[in-house]
Amino acid sequence: MPKTLTxxxxxxxxxxxxxxxxQSVVLPAAAGELGVLPGHIPMVVQLDFGSLRYKKDGKEEExxxxxxxxxxLRDSVNIFAEGADLADEIDEEEEKQKIKRxxxxxxxxxxxxxxxxAELEIKQAIARMKVKKRHLG
Length: 137
Fold this sequence. Notes:
Elements: E1 5-10, E2 15-22, E3 24-29, E4 32-36, E5 43-56, E6 59-73, E7 76-81, E8 84-86, H1 92-108, H2 115-136
Helix pairs in contact: 1-2
């Protein structure tokens, strides 16, 4: 059995990780966090907003993942995310401003407001902020 997994992380914008050898992966699956080690049973899972963590050479790295799907094979994990941001690249102040703007648009009660989009923006910003705060702590 292999001692590592091959991790691929793809978003509509670009491929963020390409055949990265890792020891383990933790995914934000829709039903809760899912840990993956080499030799895992094959499956496909829906991803929620949350933290994607992986260990490489004993060091943990983290991305904020904004939904999508993961294909888990015995020796690889392929993540097709709607969006993903490396924890180090998340600007906490920018995310706070996004939440503020979305809440303001929701409180105006304009007929032109897309409530689902505003709520989605809030959920995405909160997911990014949680990853950033955990990474700093």
